[in-house]
Amino acid sequence: MKKLQQLSLSFIGIIFCVPLLAVEGNKSPTVAAPAGTTIIINNGGGSTNQLKDKNTNTDADKNNVNNNKPNQPQNNNESKKTNTTNTARRFSAGVIIAAGSGLKTHKVETRGSHADYQISAGGGLGFGIRGSYGLSKMIDLDTSFVSQESKMEHYGGTSLYASTGSGSFKRQVFLFTGKYKMPLSYNKVMKFGGGLGMYMNGKLSMSESSTNFKKGDLAYNKLDVEYKDAIGYHLTGEYEHIFKPNLSWIVGAKLYFVDYEPDNIKVEKVDYVVDDTKTFDGSGFDIIAGFNFYF
């Protein structure tokens, strides 16, 4: 009977001691880790915890801290410059001056063997206004209106004959131009383009203070020939420097081609129908300069 009681107690002890030993076996030993060492603990449920010394930062932590700092201002002049050549959806208006020479000169009167009076229907000096609109970053539409006049020139003979006669060819020109822009820097741009123009109110005026001019059977001291409005075409190249956000200066060149047909002639303010008056070639090459203001 005693032996049976001892076996029962031993069996009960085994039942209670085995679970306790299992629990003790699952506990991780406590180990002192050096500073900066990451300790990984497995809780037995598939998840892990990482413990890290709070007094030590890794390289990744330092990078995160640096990335969270506000951007420092760069000591670079380019960062302060604004691209002003992008004039998309902006209007501009300005004034221009044009000066040039005609591609062809016409002899309008001969004074025997003494002198020839010649004039060109292109070139001369002109003043006008212009306006433009930026269709896109690279394309501009431009319009301009210029009143231009070329003077009669004297060739051959003596200066006496040149001083007694004078003449000019006046016209107004309205141009429509499409331009392609090629930026050179944040505030400088080249523009190349072409278009059509209306050449209006062409008028040749000649006068003589001493003796009469002779044209066929007509003798006159004053002659005016009016020309019909004409359509021509042109090519342009232009440099623009935007020196302030809304202000720029320009310089460029224009090559244009147009012919003027005569309409009527006035001698001493009397009108005559022109039947055989020479057609004027008004083609020319002009240098253009001006200022623009952007809205």
Characterise this structure.
The protein is mainly beta and 295 residues long. The chain has a domain at 91-294: Porin (Beta Barrel), CATH 2.40.160. Helices cover 14% and strands 55% of the residues. It has three helices and 20 strands. The protein has helices at 2-26, 59-67, 159-164; strands at residues 39-42, 48-51, 91-102, 106-111, 115-119, 123-134, 139-151, 153-155, 165-183, 188-208, 213-215, 218-220, 222-227, 230-244, 247-257, 259-260, 262-267, 270-273, 280-281, 284-294. An eight-stranded antiparallel barrel has the order 3-6-7-9-10-14-15-20. Strands 4-5-8 form a three-stranded antiparallel β-sheet. Strands 1-2 form a two-stranded antiparallel ribbon. A hairpin with a 3-residue loop joins strand 4 and strand 5. The longest helix is centred in the N-terminal third of the chain and has 25 residues, at 2-26. It is elongated, with a radius of gyration of 46 Å. It starts with a helix and ends with a strand. The model is unreliable at 18-26, 44-49, 51-56 and 157-163 (pLDDT under 50).
